[in-house]
Amino acid sequence: MPSKEEKEVLEMLQKIPLFSGLETKDLKHIAAALREHRYEANKVIEAEGEKGISLFVIKDGEVVIKRGNKVLANLGPGQFFGEMSLLDSQPRSASAITGANPATCLVMTSWAWEGFLKTKPEIAISVLKEMARRLRETNKKLTE
């Protein structure tokens, strides 16, 4: 029987576009690969230009995504970041910084992510759709 916290994580994963179409057994597999990390307020989680090896799902708090001094997005619980570096092994395209309060993220490493994609390739379509949406949003913000 899953604990209350495990149920909360599964419910959160079901609401994330990347994972919403997956069966419960697959969500449990993803949840098992996630590690919880707590970050203090106003701290850099990932810095622009650094090698990225993790996908982050925000459990609580706020994370600001910035390129240089320009804010690209304000993300909250149930949202995610870091997916691009998992796919192309390139340096982070932006920094992820906690907001005025601490934040908790569920973190999946690139090797766990890659293993999951190999067993569930249909999730790649969800990733591509979300990346395209975010790219359009970012392009719009950068040209404003």
Could you explain how this protein is built, in words?
- Helix 1 packs across helix 2 (24-33).
- Helices cover 41% and strands 27% of the residues.
- The mean pLDDT is 86.
- It has one domain (4-143): Jelly Rolls.
- The protein has 5 helices and 8 strands; from the N terminus they run H-H-E-E-E-E-E-E-H-E-E-H-H.
- It is globular and about 40 Å long.
- It has a 4-stranded antiparallel beta sheet. A 4-stranded antiparallel beta sheet has the order 2-7-4-5.
- The longest helix has 21 residues, at 123-143.
- The chain is of the alpha+beta class.
In what range is the share of β-strand residues? 25-35%
Overall shape: globular
Largest sheet: 4 strands, antiparallel
How many separate structural domains?
1
CATH C-level class is Mainly Beta
CATH architecture annotation:
Sandwich
| Unreliable stretches | none
Fourth-level CATH superfamily: Jelly Rolls
Radius of gyration using CA atoms only:
15 Å
Please give the share of residues in helix.
40-55%
The topology string of helices and strands comes to HHEEEEEEHEEHH
* Structural class determined from secondary elements: alpha+beta
Distance between the termini: 50 Å
